[in-house]
Design brief:
mainly alpha
């Protein structure tokens, strides 16, 4: 078996299996009470904030500093952050447009309020899946680039990424299941978001010399997309479902969890 095929298979395990396992856990928790869904959504938001702040943006700065002057690095990272946010924002606008087309005018009963809340959770889950897919592509580039230079290095990176992908899978399926989606469909969506890792690994393996620079730009864009989803979907839904302190506590827990993963 060639190194390229082995790297693709390893990226499959890191992306699809890692995210899928997290998806199973998120689907199980997402089917609970509104407070449970709010806590899981808050935890997922904390993980995404932490990964962006402690790992993704610093990694982008570090890689780009080796090839660009300081002012260009700052501009490149900022532009990538905005581009990633806009990418997911467009996806969100499309989802909202489709929802408006399907919306049936009705009175403002409790059932309608619940339906609106579920629709918000579904939208949060879909947008999170899109953001995680954007995030998984540069992770795949990192696996392919490292594996192209040294096979054991690529496998090591893949193992670390697989661990990181578990809470990301939770972030996708918890709001989807809480919004009424079937558990098995939610898990499939989470695994599908992880499939972007495979494409990234193939690209990284082919462009080994440029993989660090390309991966850094993609990583910053992914951070922007994750921060956008966190601010516009996960956090609002978490606090709407639970007005107590649990979402805040869960957010802090997610940030600490992300810090621990980043320090590994």
């Amino acid at each position: 078996m060639s190194d390229g095929i082995l790297i693709v298979l390893v990226s499959l395990a890191a992306g699809v299996v890692g995210t899928g396992l997290g998806g199973l856990l998120g689907a199980f928790l997402g089917g609970g009470s509104e407070k449970t869904v709010a806590s899981v959504s808050g935890f997922a938001a904390g993980v995404m904030i932490g990964l962006s702040a402690f790992e993704m943006v610093p990694s982008a700065f570090e890689e780009l500093t080796a090839t660009l002057p300081d002012y260009a690095v700052i501009l490149a990272v900022l532009a990538s952050l905005v581009a990633g946010a806009l990418l997911v924002a467009v996806a969100g606008w499309i989802i909202e447009f489709v929802e408006k087309k399907k919306k049936v005018v009705s009175d403002t009963s409790k059932t309608d309020v619940n339906a609106t809340s579920k629709a918000g959770l579904m939208r949060a889950g879909i947008m999170t899946a899109a953001a995680i897919a954007v995030h998984n592509f540069p992770e795949g580039v990192a696996i392919g680039g490292a594996g192209g230079a040294e096979l054991t290095g690529g496998i090591t990176v893949a193992i670390m990424i697989a661990l990181h992908n578990v809470p990301e899978g939770m972030a996708i399926t918890a709001p989807l299941t809480g919004g009424g989606e079937k558990s098995w469909k939610s898990v499939l969506i989470a695994a599908g978001a992880g499939a972007a890792t495979i494409l990234g690994a193939a690209v990284g393996f082919v462009i080994q010399d440029a993989s660090a620079w390309a991966g850094a730009v993609c990583m910053a864009a992914a951070a922007g997309s994750m921060l956008y989803v966190t601010a516009t979907s996960l956090l609002p839904e978490a606090y709407e479902l639970s007005h107590g302190k649990m979402p805040s506590v869960a957010i802090i827990g997610g940030i600490l969890c992300a810090f621990a993963f980043s320090a590994m």
